[in-house]
């Protein structure tokens, strides 16, 4: 199984992406499993918050190009995280690429450790960060969004914190999470749910207004000749033909 869900520990449940051989890439199976787990946790009165973390050196490598999820299912998963009545915190101490950043952006809080690195690599394989813009653009500083969306450059956890992608950078990621989890344990569950609703209202408006068009854009780009060349080059570990 590519997902491990812990028992609650004083109200906190840890959900672990556990397919390090594939760098925790988002396959159709993993998206479905994560959606099912979150559905149960959202309805569980014993759960105060969810920590999303990973095994191995990657938090999430983006879409699994061998077994990709349907873009509509991925959008539904992102919206599910945003709408979940419990705060979702990302614990990141590994690489995050492409669609993995969309998953991270849907979380309410995030702490990155020294092993974390980030890159929006879509443009390098001939596509665009379409559906993940729903969760990333409201969070990122505009100048950082322009730079990293357009160039595909890699950046570290400290840069991610400055750009607004993560809440904090910490040399010890668990120590960085501890005060946030302590605060959530002290908060009233109903008040937490309503506060999260206030914080995410504009993001959900963007889902309502733009998700269908972005899913269509993603499908069109992934079916383009550029994407076929780019994904083929990626899977074969060679440069695509447009590299100068």
From TrEMBL:
InterPro entries referenced in this protein's UniProt entry, alphabetically: ClpP/crotonase-like_dom_sf (IPR029045), Enoyl-CoA_hydra/iso (IPR001753), Enoyl-CoA_hydra_C (IPR014748), Enoyl-CoA_Hydratase/Isomerase (IPR051683)
Family: Belongs to the enoyl-CoA hydratase/isomerase family.
Protein name: Enoyl-CoA hydratase family protein
Species whose genome carries this gene: Streptomyces huasconensis
